[in-house]
Amino acid sequence: MAAYQPIASRLTLRLQVGADEWGKPKLKSKSIAGVDYSADATDVLTVAQAIAGLLPYNLVEAQKVDTDRVG
């Protein structure tokens, strides 16, 4: 039977860096590798908000992206 085997996890911050000429938000992504695969969602969000607080941009979304091998 096949199963997932964790390879890596990263935190991706989606940041609003401005707006275009029509007022639509301009977004940029920043990724941080080495996140614990089993990290709790509340802890991941807390860290994302803390990092975003150091940046001059607004945090729009935080994502934990897991990479798994199937085997």
From TrEMBL:
Pfam families: DUF1659 (PF07872). InterPro entries: DUF1659. Residues 5-68 form the DUF1659 domain. This is DUF1659 domain-containing protein. The lineage of its organism: Bacteria, Thermotogati, Synergistota, Synergistia, Synergistales.
